[in-house]
Amino acid sequence: MSFFNKLKTRLFKSSSKIDEGLEAIVEEGGSAEPPADPPAPPVPTPDVPPSPAPDPTMPPADVPPPADQPEETAPPAGRPGLLGRVFGGGRDAAPVVRRVLDDDMLESLEDLLITADMGVDTAARVTANMAEGRYGRRLSTDEIKALLAEEVARIMEPVARPMPLYQKRPQVVLVVGVNGSGKTTTIGKLASQFRAAGKSVVIAAGDTFRAAAVEQLQVWGDRAGVPVMTAPQGTDPASLAFDAMTRAEAEGADLLMIDTAGRLQNRADLMEELAKIVRVIRKKDPSAPHNTLLVLDATTGQNALSQVEIFQKLADVSGLVMTKLDGTARGGVLVALADRFGLPIHAIGVGEQIDDLAPFDPEEFARALTGAAQ
Known about the structure:
This protein has helices at residues 3-10, 12-29, 82-86, 103-115, 120-131, 141-156, 183-196, 211-224, 237-251, 268-284, 303-315, 333-341, 362-370; strands at 31-33, 96-100, 138-140, 171-176, 201-204, 228-229, 255-258, 291-297, 319-323, 345-349, 357-359. By secondary structure, the protein is an alpha/beta fold. The strands form two sheets. Strands 6-5-7-4-8-9-10-11 form an eight-stranded mixed β-sheet, sandwiched between helices. Strands 1-2-3 form a three-stranded antiparallel β-sheet.
């Protein structure tokens, strides 16, 4: 199964919520219209050789009168002809419900997008753009889906960028986020992808306070074929990060990925500890960390916005990874993040398997989120 098919299937909670909402909006104030008859297909003409010109010196031949031919009959009223039925036209086709794009409809659309966690400002901007040049037109549900997908893709296009790779060795990638956001699994999946691309990777298990976190990261390291550097439980995470940089440098590794403990953005002590890790890393290499990835859990909805604000201040976030899009009806929050912060979205996750993390494609995401046709 392609990643887009996974995305479309597993974003069902979000897409079905928007899909059902759009249908209800259109049906509420719309009316059915019979589908337009399709144009008649051209009738092929057989290749007939031209008749020879008559010889004026020869008398006309006797031509027998034509046999009686049955009269052609039209199909009964209310029933399409054969071609009409084959090509899906005729009066048997289901009528299409359309509704005028007016203020009431725009308000309903805006409310629907807000419930999908796009946020008030983003929802207002999207609906305003949808109305531009189309206000007063009668639109069907499918047409609205296509317009909505187009607007979502337009917002997401500038931020859809893979994580940059540099010549610097080791390139230090600091991975941050709150508890349960999916940092550990994201590190394992990214490490597997980098290794498949020919990069040498070292992972540092910086969550030194939870033995389970270290064990989980070791499992992912084994699956990815990547070494995992650990330290005794309770070790200062900043010290481990410093030692990991020394080891990665000595081994000539291309990438060093540093896991961190889950931080609650309202816990000042934990956030200060993260700031300390950054300070210590920069003592070893003033340009590090070269990437700071913030892993966000899609199920948190609008709370993801405040997480980005806090982590940006402490760790200078350079890019986002959104996980658990398969388990929520709040997929619209990714649109709000792109619209508000403009941070690169490097990848999205829709499952627990090692290949369930893929580069972010704005058009595929927009179609999957809105239920629009490919």
